[in-house]
Amino acid sequence: MSALVTESPAIELIDVSLRFISPTGASLTALRNFTMTVRRGEFVAIVGPTGCGKSTTLNLITGINKANSGQVKVMGKPVTGSDPGIGFVFQTDALFPWRSVLRNVAAGPLFRGLPKEAAYTKAREWIKRVGLVGFENHYPHQLSGGMRKRVTLAQTFINNPQILLMDEPFSALDVQTRIVMQDELLDMWSSSNASVVFVTHDLEEAIALADRVYVLTAGPATVKAAYDIPLPRPRVTSEIRYQPEFIEISRQIWEDLREEVQISYARTQLATA
Amino acid sequence: MTIDTPISANGAVHDAAERAAAAAPRKRRQLILALRLAILVVIVGGWELASRTHVIDPFFFAMPSTIVQQLWTWIIEGTSQGPLWGEVLVTLEETVLGFLIGAVLGIVCGIVLGRDKLLADVFSIYIKVANSIPRIVLGSIFVIALGLGMQSKVALAVVMVFFVVFANAFQGVREADRSLIANARILGASPLQITTAVIVPAAMSWILASLHVSFGFALVGAVVGEFLGSRHGIGLLISTEQGLFSPAGVFAAMIVLAVVALAADYLLTWAENRLLKWRPPSFADVRG
C-alpha cells in the first residue's frame, strides 16, 4: 500500500472542455475548463443541476466522449478507449433480461475468457455476497428493483474494477431501498480498492457516501466548488444523515448548489416560455 | 380450526368465494367453446342446406358433404397423382426447405446489415426496390430457370420468406437497447460477443414473430410454385381439380393445406415459448 502513495491519482481531468455539435450544426458546450482529481481508493461524488453535464464527465473517463481540449488521464495514462479496469453502473436497468441472475453476474468473467465453471463459481460467491442465494435461476423481470440493483452491483464488482463509475445508480429506487443499497455499496467498496466517481442529483446521498463532493455549475459545467467530507468511516447511511456535522455540511453545500439549480431552472422556464 | 369457529366460518366463506372465482373463467371458456361450435354448425349447415336446395349452385360451390367425401377418397384411394400423404410430403418438404433457407439468410443478412451502418445505407435502397416487387411473379422465372422439380418451388418459398425475416431481424437489431450494449462493452465483451450475447437475443422476439408469419408465406410460395408448373404437390392437385371443374377437390385441398399450416403454427409457438421463457408473461397470457 505504501507504494501507492507515490503513484499518480486514479483519475485526472485537467482543464477539459467538450463541445457537442448537434445534427443541425449548432454547438453546445457541455464542459468548460473542468478540472477534477480522484485519488486512488477515493470515493468522489458529483452533484449538479439536472442536465448540466454530470454524466458527460463519466463518458470522458470511459473514452466514449473525447475532450476537445485538456487532458483526461486514468491511472496516470491518457484514456485510450476500453480499459478493462473500469466498472460502470448505469442509471437505467442494464441487466440482460434473457440471462438468469447467475449468468448475468458471470457475464463479465465469461466475456473476459474465464472458463464457464470458474466464472459460475465466482458468480455464486458474489450472489451470496449481495444476499441473493436462491435466486440464481431467476430472470431479472422476476426480481424487485432493489434486487436487480444488487445483481447489477455483483455484476460490476465481480470484475474487481480499479475504477468504478456510477451514473445516478439508485435514482429509480424508492427511498428505503435506496438507503439499504447505499450501505451495501459502501460495504462492497470498503473491501475493494476501487476509486469511485458517483454522479447524483441527491446532495444527501453524495455527502453520505463520498470522501469528496464536487459541485458543478449549471451547463456548461465547470467545478464550482469541491468539499471534503470529514465524516468518519465506516458510515451507516441511514443514521449519518441525522448527525449535526452532516446537517452542517449539507447546509453549506446546498448554498452553492441552490444558486446553480435556480439558474438552470430559470433557463428551462425561458425555454418553455 | 377445531376450536375457533369464527375463523373456520370465515375460511368457509373464503373457500366459497375462491371456488366462485375459479368457476367464473371456466364458465367463460365453456361459453366461448359453445359459441364457436354454434358458428361452425351454422356456416357448414347453412352451406350444405343452401346447396341441397339449390339456393347456391353446388356445381360451382360444392357442399361440405362432397368435400368430405372427396377428402375421404383421397385418404383411402389416393389422388390422381398418387397417395395424398406423398403429395402433402412434397409440398411440406418444399415449404420447410424454403422456410429454413429463407429464414437463415434473412436472419444473417438482417443482423449483419443491422450492425453495419455503411452496408445498411448502401443496400437499403435495393432492398426497398426488391421488396416492392410482387415476389410471387418471380415464380414464373424460377419455373423457367430451375424446371418443374423441387428447386423452383423452394426458390420461390425462399424469396417469400427472406424479406419478411430480414426486415424483422434488421429492425430487431436496430431496436436493441443501447444501455445493454454499453453494459456488455464495459463488462469486457468483444464486438463479436456483443453480437452473440446481446444483439441476437435482443432481436430474437422480433425474429420469432416474423417466423410465424413467414412460414405461411413459405407455404404460399411452394403452392403457387406448384400451381405454375410441377409434377407433384398440393398446388398441382388444386390446379388439376380446377381443370376438372371440381370445386369440392379445391376445397378439400384447401383443408389439407390449412391443417399443415395450423400444425406448423403450433410447433412454432411451442418453440417460441421455449426460446423466450425469460420474457415476463404478458397480460393476455396471464388471463388465458
What is the gist of this entry?
The complex is a heterodimer of chains A (273) and B (288). By secondary structure, chain A is of the alpha/beta class.
What's the arrangement of secondary structure elements?
The complex is a heterodimer of chains A (273) and B (288).
Chain A: H1 2-6, E1 11-21, E2 27-38, E3 43-47, H2 54-62, E4 69-74, E5 77-78, E6 86-89, H3 101-105, H4 107-111, H5 116-129, H6 145-157, E7 163-167, H7 175-190, E8 195-200, H8 203-209, E9 212-216, E10 223-228, H9 237-240, H10 244-272
Parallel strand pairs in A: 3-8, 3-9, 6-7, 7-8
Antiparallel strand pairs in A: 1-2, 1-4, 4-5, 9-10
Chain B: H1 5-52, H2 58-61, H3 64-77, H4 84-115, H5 117-132, H6 138-146, H7 150-174, H8 178-187, H9 191-228, H10 234-243, H11 247-275, H12 283-287
Helix pairs in contact in B: 3-11, 4-5, 4-7, 4-9, 6-7, 6-9, 7-9, 8-9, 9-10, 9-11, 10-11
Keywords:
heterodimer, A: 273 residues, alpha/beta, Rossmann fold, 2 domains, four-stranded antiparallel β-sheet, 10 helices, 39% helix, globular, disordered N terminus, B: 288 residues, mainly alpha, MetI-like fold, 83% helix, disordered C terminus
Tell me what you see in this structure.
The complex is a heterodimer of chains A (273) and B (288). Chain A is 39% helix and 23% strand. Chain A is built from 10 helices and 10 strands. In chain A, the strands form 2 sheets. Chain A has a 6-stranded mixed beta sheet, with helices on both faces. Chain A is globular and about 55 Å long. By secondary structure, chain B is mainly α. Chain B has 2 domains: 5-56; 64-287, MetI-like fold. Chain B has 12 helices and no strands. Chains A and B meet through β6 and α4 of A and α8 and α9 of B.
Stretches of chain B where pLDDT falls below 50 for ≥5 residues?
Answer: 1-8, 283-288
CATH architecture of the largest domain in chain B: Orthogonal Bundle
Helices of chain B, by number, come to 12
Give the CATH class of the largest domain in chain A: Alpha Beta
